[in-house]
Amino acid sequence: GLTQLNGADVKQRERRDAELRYLQNVVAELEEATDSEARDAAAASHPRLRELTARYGEVLGSAVRGEGSAAMASSLVELKLTCVAASASAKMGSQVKKLPRSTPLGALRLLCDKLFKVRVTHQVLFLRAPGDPLPEEVGADDDSRSLQFFGVQDGYEVLVDECDPAARAAAAEEARRKAAAEHEERLAEQLKTADVLQAEFTRSLGLAQDAQAAPALL
């Protein structure tokens, strides 16, 4: 790596700070990407991304927000990260990590990529509290949300699954169409019921008017 800059030696602290700022910029760039193709292109343009993620690991969440070590130490949460992805390239298993509660999901994805070899753009993250039988998906809409946003505490488990972004988008679109069709069906049924009630009301009103008019004809 670079050992001198402008004739002066590059100190270890200066190198670390520069690399953390670099990671912060990369994470921001990935979060601004609008689709999986853009994210892949952004990740590919930073060849040192995987190396630096591996180097800083547990402090990544703190690094991308520029927090100091003292603040980080006072807000760490111990999580169990478990890979359940079934692809051949994924590394199954679990690891326990201490992360700042302020760690954004985008940074957590980078860490999971490093640990389990599951691409950031293909990850599906689930969160499970101790004792809960079913996990809850997180990060589907906003990777800038932090662990603290989800109320994460010591002992929580993050499940890392894998899904093709195109297939996931297709499934979401199909679910949207199905929901829209069900809404239209319910609306049609409600209108049909309203028509029946209106017809019944009109018939009852006509009978009442006929009954009132009958004595006058006698």
From TrEMBL:
Query: Do you know which Pfam families this protein is assigned to?
Result: Ubiquitin_2
User: Which parts of the sequence belong to the Ubiquitin-like domain?
Assistant: 97-166
Q: Which InterPro entries match?
A: Ubiquitin-like_dom (IPR000626), Ubiquitin-like_domsf (IPR029071), Ubl_TBCE (IPR044079)
CDD domains named in the record: Ubl_TBCE
This chain belongs to which protein, by name? Ubiquitin-like domain-containing protein
Which species is the source of this protein? Chlamydomonas leiostraca
Tell me the lineage of the source organism: Eukaryota, Viridiplantae, Chlorophyta, core chlorophytes, Chlorophyceae
